[in-house]
């Protein structure tokens, strides 16, 4: 196989964009992954959300199943303006789907939030970030896990 052909096939199968992607692409990929996870869980519970159970139970299922799937690992997210809009927009679409409302019905997002009363995804992310920051600040330096991972064996003579 010639070098030119080999380099072309390696380029096609390499994971360069994953390993050396700029930070913004990594953030966008992280947001998309969590939003996809939220939609997956929402789809699994679609019969509950589309049924006539009531908004109270819909809210409980959403807050206990969909929201944790969307905010998993959110402690490390940076809440830039670009990233804030993506999970919030997905949540608004899910809320409208729970109420069987489309954008053509001309209902404001505030009205939809008042009807569903679900926990805001951005507020949940902020709360988790502050909880994680408090946890990290209380960690001491004398942890056995840190001592084991940074341990250097004695030199033999």
UniProtKB/TrEMBL annotation:
Domain of life: Eukaryota
Region (Disordered): 1-27
PANTHER family attached to this UniProt entry: REVERSE TRANSCRIPTASE DOMAIN-CONTAINING PROTEIN, REVERSE TRANSCRIPTASE-LIKE PROTEIN WITH RNA-DIRECTED DNA POLYMERASE DOMAIN
Protein known as: Endonuclease-reverse transcriptase
Originating species: Ridgeia piscesae
Lineage of origin: Eukaryota, Metazoa, Spiralia, Lophotrochozoa, Annelida
